[in-house]
Each structure stands twice: as structure tokens, then as C-alpha cells.
Amino acid sequence: MTPAPVRYRILGPLEIRGPDGAFRMVGQAKCRALLAVLLVNAGRTVPAGELLEQLWPGGAPKSAPKLVQQYVHRLRRVLPAAPPERCPAGRGGSRLLTSSPGYRLAVDSGELDADRFTALARAARGSLAEGRTGQAAEGLRRALDMWRGPLLADVPDLPAITAELVRLEEARLAATEAWVWAELHRGHAQDVVPELEILVAAHPLRESFRHQLMIALCLSGRRADALGAARQLRHVLAEELGIRPGADVLAMEQAIIRDSLADLPGLVSKAIGAPPAARGV
Fold this sequence. Notes:
Elements: E1 7-9, E2 15-17, E3 23-24, H1 29-40, E4 46-47, H2 48-55, H3 64-78, E5 96-99, E6 102-105, H4 113-129, H5 133-144, H6 159-185, H7 189-202, H8 207-219, H9 223-240, H10 247-258, H11 263-273
Antiparallel strand pairs: 1-2, 2-3, 4-6, 5-6
């Protein structure tokens, strides 16, 4: 029988769940930080010197090497044991391996929630590109529901994990955009307006969310509100970045101003049929 996988969860507070589903507590802040560094480098040996630099960005104390050894020992007691065939070079079946010149965490496929999120979102975006909008919307919603809060919410900011956090946060926003396009395809414009308003408030410089909000408002019969969203975007971009909105937003804004019944449906259909890449931040 194939053993149940361990679950490492970083899409929110750091969690470990054993094959039995039980939560494994990683109490000390430095232990959580060490585990976070090893997880974002899963499968790669992280040199001991690099760990010292990451865990003590302001300079490691003389006792740091011994402290790292203590943290590794504590993590090994918390991590579920691995079958010998999984970690043949491990110490007693430990998933946390001593591998010169440092340490490596053995993480199997599907055990890290960030990897599962990425795979699920990629598959769902493929469904959207192929026109299977219902399947795409459901898959993207499942992927987004894996997020339990800010990434590694209970782990101190560390240089080693900053780039990964930025990458995953951008992946989450891109998946959210794709989910909105799928819902617009399905005719659920009114349903996505409240969430888009929240997204626009949280990411005022991300032009794609404002563009989607304009489309959703237009499809909901709220053209005046859509025009207000366009004008607000123009103001924010000018004030913060000194730039104008992109061509898609400007074309839709002009169609709304002209109240062009001939142009507006075409612009909406074009936008929904070919989701643009995010250009904001």
C-alpha cells in the first residue's frame, strides 16, 4: 500500500500534517524559519553557511552553527519519518538529510501545497484557453481556496524566501484574473463585481483588475460605474506612476463615453476571449 503523503503548507501559516492528517507543531520561531528556507529550496542542499546568513541576516552569532544543529535535531523529531526507500541516504529514515555541505529536505511530488496550487492553476488555465470555462472556473477556485492567508504568515521575513513569496503572490493574482475571465465567460458578471471591487481596492495599480471590473460593470448594466472606474484608474496611474492606462482600458472608456452600442459588445467579447497579461503591480 502506498503511504499517505505528508502535507507541507506554506500558503498561509506554516503547517506540517503527517500521513494521518494530524498537525505537527513547529514551535520555535527559528525552527519555523529554518523549515521555511528548506521548503522553498526543497530537494536542494542548502549549504550551512547560507543557512546562517539567512537565519541571521544582520550577522550570525558565534553560537549559530551549534544552534542550527539544534534546530535541525528538533525538526527531525517533528517531521514524520520517511520510509527507508524514500530517503536511502537519510539518517534513520529522516526527511531532513545531512548532505555535505549542508542540509536538504526530501519533499515528494504533491506534498507541498504551493506545488499543488501551481499545478492545479496551470491545468485550469489550460482549460480556459481551450474554451472549457466551467471546468476552468472550478479548477481555479479550488486552487485559490488552498490559500489560508498571507504566505508563511508566522515566519519572519528572510531574504531566502522573499523571492519565492513574490513569485507565489503573483501566481495567486494571475490565477485570480484567470478565474474572473472564466466567470465572465460563463455570464456571471454580477457575481464577480463585489470581489473585483475588493481586488481593485487592494491592488489599485494593477490595471487588469480595473479592466475586468469595467467589463463586469458594463455587462451588469452599470455603465456609469464602469466609466467611474476608468477615470479613477486614469487618476491613480497619473498620480502614482505618471502613465496613462493601456489601450484596452482606453478603448473601453471611449466606448462608454460615446455610449456606442456597436463598439462596446465587441470590446467586451475581445477582452473576455483573449485575457490580456497583467501589466500593473
